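Lecture notes, continued. The same structure-token format from the folding unit now serves as the input rather than the output. Read the line below as a description of shape only.
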């Protein structure tokens, strides 16, 4: 920002293209993004070539760890969630169950992190599981509960290990809900529960792509 003027920032280079599925190469993927004005019945189809596909996976693996929702570039949030949400959805039940089981079987981990013992033993696991299953929300308290349980699972990891995991860059068939997978998916959960800002920085795609 200079002199009050906000310049557009592009995460991916967007340009008009054809949606001829018969001629699309096998390594091309398509993401359905909500339209800029958030009209429910409208969307933008974004074609993602292989190079940009790898950029998205790298960005997801390198999302910074945070214990609270954060303001994120509106267009970037849509792109990351459009790619990651189907994978998170496929693991959502397992992830919720794992967080709940961790609190139930190892409440001392949360005691050590300063949580009220009564809350840990009676409410924390259920609240974490419900938040993950909800798919979206805006409660900073619930985000902190979920992320603190996940952080307790990797208390011997330093921040560099948490900030960059290796999950999204694995081949699809080799992804599994191991510890790195848990951390990677929790980071996407935080993006789901994060707020958006629109400082004229959006993937300004032409409506001809709809």
């Amino acid at each position: 920002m200079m002199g009050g003027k906000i310049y557009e920032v592009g995460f991916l280079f967007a340009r008009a293209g054809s949606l001829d599925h018969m001629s699309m190469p096998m390594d091309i993927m398509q993401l359905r993004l909500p339209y800029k004005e958030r009209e429910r019945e409208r969307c933008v189809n974004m074609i993602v070539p292989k190079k940009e596909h790898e950029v998205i996976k790298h960005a997801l693996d390198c999302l910074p760890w945070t214990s609270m929702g954060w303001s994120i570039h509106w267009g970037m949030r849509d792109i990351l969630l459009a790619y990651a949400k189907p994978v998170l959805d496929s693991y959502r039940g397992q992830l919720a169950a794992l967080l709940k089981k961790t609190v139930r079987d190892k409440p001392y981990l949360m005691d050590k992190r300063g949580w009220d013992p009564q809350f840990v033993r009676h409410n924390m696991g259920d609240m974490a599981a419900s938040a993950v299953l909800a798919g979206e929300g805006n409660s900073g308290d619930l985000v902190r509960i979920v992320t603190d349980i996940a952080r307790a699972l990797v208390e011997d990891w330093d921040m560099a290990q948490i900030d960059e995991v290796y999950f999204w860059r694995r081949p699809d068939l080799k992804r599994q809900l191991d510890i790195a997978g848990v951390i990677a998916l929790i980071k996407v959960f935080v993006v789901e529960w994060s707020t958006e800002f629109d400082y004229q920085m959006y993937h300004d795609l032409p409506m001809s792509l709809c």
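Point for the exam: Residues 1-11, 198-210 have pLDDT under 50 and may be disordered.
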